[in-house]
Structure formats: C-alpha cells, structure tokens
Amino acid sequence: MKPIKLALFASGTGSNAESIIRYFEHKSTVEVVFVLSNKVHAPIVEKATSLGVHVVVCSNQEVEDTSYLVQLCQAHQIDYIILAGFLRKIPDTLIQTYPEKIINIHPSLLPKYGGAGMYGLKVHQAVKEAGETESGITIHYVSEHFDEGQRIAQFYTTISETDSPDEIQQKIHQLERTYFPIVVEKEINRFIQ
Ligand code: GRF
Fold first, then answer.
1. Which fold has domain 4-192?
2. pTM of the full predicted structure?
3. Is 173 a catalytic residue?
4. Strand (E) positions, the chain?
5. What is the pLDDT of residues 1-19, one digit of tens each?
6. Mutational pocket test of ligand 1: of 8, 15, 16, 178, the residue with most ligand atoms within 8 Å of the beta carbon
7. Domain extents in the chain
C-alpha cells in the first residue's frame, strides 16, 4: 500500500514537527513529504533539513494567497496537513480542500486560552495569571475560526502554585512530544480503514 503523505507546517522551534518526523521515520505507512515554513530563519528549517526532509520556505503573502497552498499540497499529493506551531491563518480554500485532514495542536485546554494572538508563552502566562491548577494540550481539526475546529483529543497536566510560565511550557512540551505523533497516527489509521 502507498504511504499516507503528510505535510508539516511550522514557523518556529519545531519540536513538534521534529517529533513527528522522528516518529514516522521508520514506518512505511506514513511519509513526511515536506515541512513548510513561512520563516526562513526558523530553527525548524535547519532541523528538518538535517533530518533529510524537504523544506519549502514561503512568504506570508503566499500563505494568504487562496491558491498557493492548495496547489502546493495537491502537486505533492498530500493526504494530511499537520500544523505544528504554524503561526499564520490557514486560508479557507485549503480548509475546504482538506476537510478534517488538517490537524493543529494548541498548548492549552481549549476552549480556554485559545483564539487569535494566543500562542507560545502568552498562553502559559494567562494560565498562570488565572491561577489554574491544571493545563494541557488540545489536538483538533482546523476550521475557518482560530482554535475552534472539532476536538480530537486533550491531555492534562497539573500545575503547582510555584510553576512559572516557563515551567508550565516545559510540562506542555512534554505532553506534546508524548502524544501528538500517536494521535496523528491514530487519525491516519482511521482514514486508511
Ligand atoms: C507548541 O506549543 C504548539 O502547541 C503550538 O506552538 C508551539 C510550537 O512549538 N501550536 P514547537 O515549534 O513545535 O517547538
């Protein structure tokens, strides 16, 4: 059987993109075809290249274009798109071309601490300021509205009073590394069956 083809979109450090690349590296069922980044100097660009994955760097205008990403993904026969710290809004045309095939990870328990402008440390600072005793990650399909697509899975971690936003972020990254690749694989298997 032909492998399911993934495209990973990432704008930053790329720890999630890296864990997905490594997870599927030796599995014949899934192929990471390319990593797309809108930032040429993002650490993920070098990371993916050193892991032997093709990297596509594009401009923000290209991301906003209604046909660029659709054509790119179709030209590579992409089945699933995984957003791993991708900070631009996905055009509706791509969402309509790939219904329930674009998966995002958000570093909070949505619907809390989601929406435009809620990313990175800002999320964990807000969680801290609110005095939350738990936080977590949400893996969900991408819809036309930021962080509002149908949820696939959530995972929790406890937060102690003394945890700083940085420490909360570390706990969240740990959850992401552990669960994101597994959940993506489970979704893909659902598609294959
Ligand atoms: C992660 O916390 C993820 O939940 C969010 O953006 C962050 C990206 O981190 N969408 P990294 O670039 O994968 O290290």
1. Rossmann fold (3.40.50)
2. 0.96
3. no
4. 4-9, 30-37, 54-57, 80-83, 102-106, 134-141, 151-158
5. 899 999 999 999 999 999 9
6. 16
7. 4-192
